[in-house]
Design a protein that fits this description.
The protein is an alpha/beta fold. The chain has 17 helices and 14 strands. The strands form 2 sheets. Strands 1, 2, 3, 4, 5, 6 and 7 form a 7-stranded mixed sheet that branches. Strands 8, 9, 10, 11, 12, 13 and 14 form a 7-stranded antiparallel sheet that branches. It has a domain of 182 residues: Rossmann fold, CATH 3.40.50. α1 crosses α14, α4 packs antiparallel against α17 and α15 packs antiparallel against α16. It is globular. Helix content is 48%, strand content 18%. β13 and β14 form a beta hairpin. The structure holds 6-O-phosphono-alpha-D-glucopyranose (G6P). The site of 6-O-phosphono-alpha-D-glucopyranose has 10 residues, from α13.
């Protein structure tokens, strides 16, 4: 179904666009935030996602049905006429869709738990998007994402794929290189920083604009604008910057260096710049009751799904905030709105660089401020990142390109070189051991490496 003009909008809206949306990983605990955002966009007359099809794997069916029933109640309460369907059949979900949102987790939360625990066993940071854990996640997620993209090419060749699936930068790199569909990647980190700035300045978020440059989970805000006025300097001297350093755990000692560079980094820079502290914290967490982030998220999701399942509940629960990923739906829906209405919006997205981020190859995916309109995102040219951080960004990009190649080809030497190039990994001996463990623990999800060993 193409995007169509719907002649009756709510509350005196004369017309608005309607379309079908498919959500891969519909059973995600995040999905209610997305549906809530869709309801708001309907009520303010921006667009009508008339049909929303959630699709999941058989193991996720129960969760998906729970989320679907809960979100139907949310919509009914607000009088929003979007229809929520569920299916295990991707073809059915893709047929006629104008947008597909991917928020999958291959292997589920248990695979994420392994991604976090295995590196720690080797004395390395365990994280689902960076380091050895992020690498394992990429090996599992990239082939599946490419398969879904091929199915989209067949069923809905004109549709946009919005990729949230982690590691979002690497998955998007693979999609832009190996799939012949319209796609871009998204993350809630840049919008989270922008919202934080707006809150601290006491202004509406729509008045704030940020210049974002780098890679997913390694991007930097290099400029802050309010009503078109450059306020970057003011931010670094404000108490809110101290607050940010505390919340993101960089601490006052790192403030001095960030102030000098005039950069607000994505929180994930913590793993690089404060690696010793990050590792110490993670080791303490897994040896205690807290466990890794996956262990924590599993506990939160248990509570969340109990709430979703209760027939009397019909609005977003407070504890969803603990789940992380806040504002993820805002960035996706702002892009969809800009595309369907051909009304430009600026968002930080993962797209092919085309020279926007100096120092990174033109055909590599970067996370950068983009102008989005009816033709999709267009990266906006950024000023060069200072040498103090550019080297790290370039090294991580080299790792990412090799990791994507390894995930696609199943070439074990490429996998080795990818990890050897990652700044969070030490020398070849450890890389070999970690890689062996990753391949063994994930073998059910890595057919491309079947029968191969180091
Ligand atoms: C972030 C990251 C995402 C991540 C999300 C939720 O903001 O950018 O990559 O998926 O948080 O993280 P969580 O640890 O709560 O699953």
């Amino acid at each position: 179904m193409p995007i169509r003009v719907l002649c009756t909008g709510p509350k005196g809206v004369e017309y608005m666009k309607e379309f079908k949306l498919a959500v891969l990983g519909g059973g995600s605990s995040y999905a209610p935030e997305l549906i809530d955002g869709i309801a708001k966009r309907y009520l303010n007359g921006e667009f009508h996602a008339r049909e929303i099809v959630m699709v999941d794997v058989p193991e996720g069916r129960e969760r998906m049905e729970t989320v679907a029933s809960f979100t139907r109640r949310m919509l009914a309460k607000q009088g929003v006429p979007c229809e929520i369907k569920t299916t295990l059949d991707r073809r059915e979900a893709f047929d006629g869709a104008s947008f597909v949102i991917s928020q999958i987790r291959v292997g589920g939360m248990l695979a994420r738990q392994r991604d976090e625990h295995i590196p720690l066993k080797h004395g390395l940071i365990g994280q689902e998007t960076t380091g050895a854990g992020g690498f394992a996640n990429a090996l599992r997620t990239i082939p599946v994402s490419l398969e879904f993209a091929r199915e989209m090419k067949d069923a809905c060749p004109e549709a946009w794929l919005l990729n949230f699936s982690n590691p979002a930068g690497l998955v998007t790199e693979a999609l832009t290189r190996y799939a012949d569909i319209k796609t871009f990647g998204l993350c809630n980190v840049p919008i989270g920083i922008k919202m934080g700035i707006a809150k601290a300045l006491g202004v509406e978020p729509s008045r704030v604009s940020t210049d974002v440059s780098g890679l997913n989970h390694l991007s930097f805000v290099t400029g802050i604008w309010v009503d078109g006025k450059d306020v970057t300097g003011a931010i670094f001297d404000s108490p809110l910057f101290e607050h940010y350093l505390k919340v993101e755990k960089y601490g006052p000692e790192m403030g001095r260096f960030l102030r000098r560079l005039r950069l607000i980094p994505a929180s994930y820079l913590f793993y690089h710049w404060c690696a010793e502290r990050a590792l110490k914290e993670q080791l303490a967490d897994i040896s205690g009751e807290k466990g890794s982030r996956a262990d924590e998220v599993m506990r939160i999701e248990k509570d969340l799904f109990e709430i979703y399942a209760k027939p009397e509940n019909d609005s977003l629960p407070e504890i969803l905030k603990k789940r992380g990923g806040a504002y993820y739906s805002d960035v996706a829906l702002s892009c969809i709105s800009a595309i369907v209405n051909n009304k430009p919006a600026v968002e930080a997205l993962n797209v092919v660089n085309r020279g926007a981020v100096p120092g990174i190859k033109a055909d590599s995916v970067v996370e950068v401020s983009c102008m989005v309109d009816g033709r999709g995102p267009h990266p906006l040219a950024q000023k060069p990142l200072p040498q103090e951080v550019l080297g790290l960004v370039q090294q991580v990009k080299a790792y990412e390109n090799l990791a994507v190649q390894a995930a696609v080809t199943g070439d074990i030497e490429t996998a080795f070189f990818a990890l050897l190039n990652h700044p969070l990994l030490p020398g070849a001996d450890t890389v070999r051991l970690v890689l062996r463990d990753i391949l063994e623990a994930n073998k059910d999800h890595l057919p491309q490496f079947a029968g191969k060993s180091l």
